[in-house]
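Blinded run. Sample ID left blank on purpose so nobody reads anything into the name before looking at the predicted structure. Input follows.
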Amino acid sequence: MKMVKKILLGLAATASIMALFGCKMNDDPENAIKGFNNNYSIDYTNETGNEYRAYESTNFKHAGALVKIKIDNAADCGNSKMGVIFELKDNETNKKAVDFYIIGVGTNNSQYNFYVSKYTSIVNIRDKNFGAPSNGSEGPNGEKEVEYIPLSGTKISDLPEEFYVYCKAKIDGSYEFALLKGTPTDSTKMDIDKIDITDLPSGVELITLPTSTKKNGCTISGNIGKIPNVFDAVTKDSDIQQNKLALYARIDKDATLKGSWKFCGTYLEAEEVEE
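Blinded prediction complete.
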């Protein structure tokens, strides 16, 4: 008799086999981001003479995540950012380059502090704007940015020092995203495999996203953003495209950034295993 069981490979389940499978995609020569498994941190003073950018990817491919971010020195880290990268993958034509989507967030409420963009053919993440021209054209290696919520003009004035970044693929080929604040009780842990972002557990609420700056088909409804056409639409969750996630930091010149990221959960395709 054939039994088919669904296995959802979360971070807790994969931690024990990380040494055997998976390969990270990282760019952080200063070793600013430290940690492993679910928990990462940064305590870095940027003395490079320029802005410093870094990312640290997951070992495995995922279709979304819920990441708690805390910026410990929000008042004196300048306009530095912490964030989440999703759909991180090798560029199809330039194997030295990567493509990704990014949600970047800062807690400096007096400056622009939130953006959502797609970057393609990025060769050096440490270049200004990852090497992509700010006017939407292509760089020398094909580097390009597509803005969904531009940083310029975007400010979330009530952003706390601790918040959640949520992103999750949908079967229509889009990605949902949101910012959350508050703390769930122990009895209502947020499980991204089961979470309905419109029906959050007690103690957690959506942060208001900016609606006036959205571009390139991005929609915002009920404080939930949606990026269209990330991948081809499918008919069931198990066919959703997966690529790697990463944690991201941008530290201003001569600034110090202290904070942490915690993977509260990842959203993954259900794999059918036959016995």
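Unblinding after everyone has recorded impressions. The first strand starts at residue 4 and ends at 7.
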